[in-house]
């Protein structure tokens, strides 16, 4: 289980996360929703070690991960897919996916090929384009590639930041369905950040609503989705 307690992250005088506490349960999808500027991406970046909090604690399976380097956090079983379909354009699809397995190659060499094959089974379009340069892919294909690169490290927790950003609804549905299937069949835990609250709450087990860096609601996703007053006040629908 991931546990965040009283987390404060600042950028100069701006408080991006203000006393945030939440948990992400094992083998469940927890979604963090909220408007632009709510602190959603900052939360994921702080968990993965890319930002350093001013106060608070983050524990993963009872172990503190504060102060650890991002690569150490990956080795502990937490993989981060940042927003923006981030891939290495000059490398092929296959090379990009392989980058996610670098730290596992010596100890788990025989499993790396199996892990890559599983990614191609999850996203068959990537198998068709495995020798193609990542920079030539569509936005949806780049998002699939970014997710595959994270998953090939065999994480136990996937931090997934705005996977729907800039993508067509059908592509978003395919990506979200694939992640949901993976969670339900393998026990993968997912912390999903999404601006599209309806999509996120439709697939998640639990929801956390952020507004201006503060937790406004922390409930089962079905309850948040049904709360019209909360949606209207903080999500605009």
Search tags:
237 residues; alpha/beta
Number of helices: 10
Distance between the termini: 32 Å
Envelope shape:
globular
- Spatial order of the strands forming the largest sheet: 6-7-8-3-9-10
Q: How confident is the prediction overall: mean pLDDT?
A: 91
Judged by helices, strands and strand pairing, the structural class is alpha/beta
Poorly predicted residue ranges = none
Radius of gyration: 17 Å
Percentage beta strand: 25-35%
**How do the helices and strands follow one another from N- to C-terminus?**
EEEHEEHEHHHHEHEHEEHH
Profile the largest sheet.
Answer: 6 strands, mixed
Helix % is: 25-40%
Tally the beta strands: 10
List the SSEs and their pairings.
Elements: E1 2-11, E2 14-24, E3 29-33, H1 40-47, E4 55-60, E5 63-64, H2 70-75, E6 78-81, H3 93-99, H4 109-122, H5 124-128, H6 139-151, E7 157-161, H7 169-186, E8 189-194, H8 197-203, E9 206-211, E10 214-220, H9 221-226, H10 228-234
Parallel strand pairs: 3-8, 3-9, 6-7, 7-8
Antiparallel strand pairs: 1-2, 1-4, 4-5, 9-10
Helix pairs in contact: 3-6
